[in-house]
Structure formats: C-alpha cells, structure tokens
Known about the structure:
mainly alpha; 11 helices
Amino acid sequence: MSRPQEPHRPFFPSGNPFKMLQRKSPNPSPKLLGLLKTFEEALAERFRKLKPKDKQEVLTLSWMRHAIELLCQTHDDIKILITDLELPVSDWDDKWIDVYLNSSVRLLDICIAFTSELSRISQGHLLLQCALHNLDASTLKPMRASSSLDGWRQHISSKNPRLENCFSVLGGLIDTLNLPKVKNCAKGKVLMQAMYGVKVLTVLVCGIFAAAFSGSANKLADLPVPRTYLWAEAFVDVQDYVNGEIRNIFSSGHFTVLKELEAVDASVKKLHPVLQDGVDIKAEELQSSTSNLRERTKNLSQGLDLLAKQVDAFFQIVLTGRDALLSNLRAGSGVPNTKQQINNDERQFVR
C-alpha cells in the first residue's frame, strides 16, 4: 500500500521511539520496568475480564461490546505509557511509519466491515416490526406476518461482501506481530513489549468478531505467545476458552452464532408453522409466541445499537491516532498543515 505524498507526524504524542534504536542505552531501569509491569498487569486483568463467567455469554452482544470496550481502554493505555516514557520528539524511520500506517488502515477497514454487518442485521428489524404489527390481535393478518418472517430469515442468511476480506486483513495484522528486537534502546524495549501485547489483544478480539459475523470458524486464529509476558497465561486461558466455545457453537449447526440473533430466530421458527396453518390459530399460543418474539426483537435491536456505538468509538481512536501521526510529522518537517490534504490522505487509506 502506498504512503501519502506528504510527510507524516507520529501517532505517539511524545515522539518517535524507533529512532532511539540507533542509540546505545542500558537495559531498562527500575523506573522503566515499573511502567512496563503496570501496563502488563493491566493488560493481564483485561484478558481475565474478557473471559466470560459462563459459556452462554460467549458471542452475546453485551459480551462483544465489553470486548471492544477493553480494546479501547488498552489502545488508550499505550498512549499514556508513551507519555510516561518521555520519549523525545523525533522523526520516525520510514519503515516504522509504513508499519503503523498499514496496521492502522487494516484496523479501520475491519471496523468498517463490522459496522456494515451490524447495520445489515439491524435493517432486518423493519421486517420483524412488520410481522409483529400483523400479529397484533386487532389487526391479525397471519399470511402477511408469515411473509415478513420469511423475508427476515432470507435477509439475515444473506452474505455481506464487506466481510470477505476480513480474514486476509487480519492475517496482515498477525504478520506485524513479530517486530524486530530492540537492542540499544531501553525505552524502545519497553515500548515494543507493550505494543506487542496491544496487538495480541486486538487480533484476538477482531478475529472473534470476524468469525462470528462471517459464520465461519475455519480461520479462527490460535495465537502462540511467549510465556515470559505477565499477561501470557491470562491470554492463553481466554483464547482457549472462547475459541473452543465458538467452534462448538459452529459445529452444532445453529442458524447464527450471535446469541440474541439466534434467540429471535428460535421465536420465528416457533411462530412460522402456526401462521402457515392459518385456520386453527390458538389465540393464547399466538399471543405468547408473539410476546416472546417482540421481547427478543427488542433485545436484539438494543444490543446491536450499543455494540455499533462501541465499534465506532474504537474506529475513532484508531483514526485519531492516524491524524496525530500525520499532523506531528508535518509539523516536525515544516510542511504546511493543509487540512484538505489530510482528509484526502484519510479517504485514500480508508478505501
């Protein structure tokens, strides 16, 4: 992927850690090790929080929203760590600029794909609302309700083309996990170790989402990580637990792996044969099934809205980082900060 024509500014507010690679420096001091320990302990706790208390929580919309919240917190933490490291403001090496820009644009692409899928699922809400309207006792129209429910199932089972490239994009992120070792910079060593943890959490969460939305666990990643990291045990535990449960859900042949969506589909399946009979509809049974569908539809709609907002919040964190990178590098090089050109660069990468 080509880089913008203008110089860039570092995403990191305090400067460029990678130029320090060329300077000789002792091993991390107790202060630096303390900063790293604090960061890794917080990351380990987030991995522990990511593990559901019950397997039934896996791939609920509320759990998925929680996962994105933890991801946002961790990406914010890396910015705080860089400030605490007091890295000097300096130009990045070209290869590191490319690594960051390519990684960030992959995350933007993934967020766009996830938002598109959440929007597509939400669009089915109108069909469910039409069905519920035609199931109201005062305006009962069984055949119209049945037709709307058929339309909903067809809509939900259709494929979203934006999801097709998610796994290849994730593969590109995984390829950036193994960064070169930092030999001559104590602060660089700390930063690289922290950033490795951030990327591992990012790949884990985005991989789970991609599998859930695409309806395929075939490319669900099982990342190997060195046991030397303070968060490694917690990461392996949650990865094995969640990935294992997702594979079990897929192997059971469910219509969808998203729990709230599956609940709505179960209600639709229960209603459908009753409505098709048409003649001998029992009022009490119909009322109970309709009430059940209405409640589950409401839960699905609310869950999708909240998750979409959280995905957008993560998108904004990544996009803000790109803006800071471009702005700081332009300021450092003396290039005029042209807002229109920044917008053009962003549109180019998001595409």
